[in-house]
Specification:
Blueprint (H helix, E strand, L loop, with lengths): L1 E4 L6 H10 L4 E4 L2 H10 L5 E4 L5 H10 L2 H10 L4 E4 L1 H5 L1 E4 L5 E2 L4 E7 L8 E6 L1 E2 L14 E6 L1 E4 L7 E7 L2 E9 L2 E4 L7 H26 L2
Parallel strand pairs: 1-2, 1-3, 3-4, 4-14, 5-7
Antiparallel strand pairs: 5-6, 7-11, 8-10, 9-12, 12-13, 13-14
């Protein structure tokens, strides 16, 4: 089972449907109380997805007021797989310059900045991927595969960053498309809207999450 964190700013129904097509149940979690109840009633939650669209600052406020900030930090502390989608990926980083300066989760080093005036904003539509580092999240995904983006801000990372698994080129800007560190992952694009390529990535995340759950159970029985 995958937990979908509901900040009121993500298209949870399409992500949930995409996970169902990947053969995985998903449950929507709206606040810290709901998460605690879920852990008591059905602790077999293997992974967590943080989707999001909208403004960075508003999303961080909602994460805090809902009690989900502690949920996310707790999940990462126990190495539970976490996938941020679009704004959810940006929130994993240290801070954002969207409408002022806002602190992010700080789980990954880097900042979120706006595209320059030389580019049409938002970056919206299909873009091909360049694979930078091999990663289990990208199993079965190839250079030149297309995925669907909708965003006006992007994470500023160097091309040689160890966080960068895949990128897309938008004008003269290298857009980090897939990032990963330990079991924290992010996609700037929407895998739930990216056809078979996005479905592969979600299936890979489900597989990673199930492996974590299996290893956790094995350790608990030692």
């Amino acid at each position: 089972m995958i937990a979908l964190l509901d900040l009121g700013i993500g298209n949870l129904s399409s992500v949930k449907s995409a996970l169902a097509r990947a053969g995985e149940d998903a449950i929507v979690v709206t606040d810290g109380v709901a998460w605690s109840r879920l852990m008591m009633e059905n602790p077999a939650v293997a992974g967590m997805i943080l989707p999001g669209v909208g403004a960075f600052g508003d999303a961080m406020i909602q994460l805090k007021t809902s009690g989900l900030l502690g949920v996310v930090r707790g999940a990462v502390a126990e190495n539970r797989p976490l996938l941020g989608i679009c704004l959810g990926m940006q929130m994993l980083f240290a801070y954002s310059e969207e409408h002022g300066n806002h602190l992010g989760l700080g789980m990954l080093p880097g900042k979120v900045v706006r595209f320059t005036n030389q580019q049409k904003v938002p970056h919206m539509g299909w873009n091909d991927l360049t694979l930078v580092h091999p990663h289990p999240l990208l199993e079965g995904v190839y250079k030149g595969d297309f995925v669907y983006f909708v965003h006006s801000y992007y994470v500023q990372l160097a091309a040689e960053s160890p966080l960068l698994m895949a990128a897309a080129q938008y004008g003269d800007t290298l857009v980090p498309a897939v990032v990963a560190q330990n079991r924290v992952y992010g996609t700037q694009f929407h895998p739930e809207k990216s056809g078979e390529v996005g479905a592969k990535i979600l299936r890979n995340f489900v597989s990673i999450s199930r492996q974590w759950e299996t290893s956790r159970k094995e350790i608990s029985h030692v």
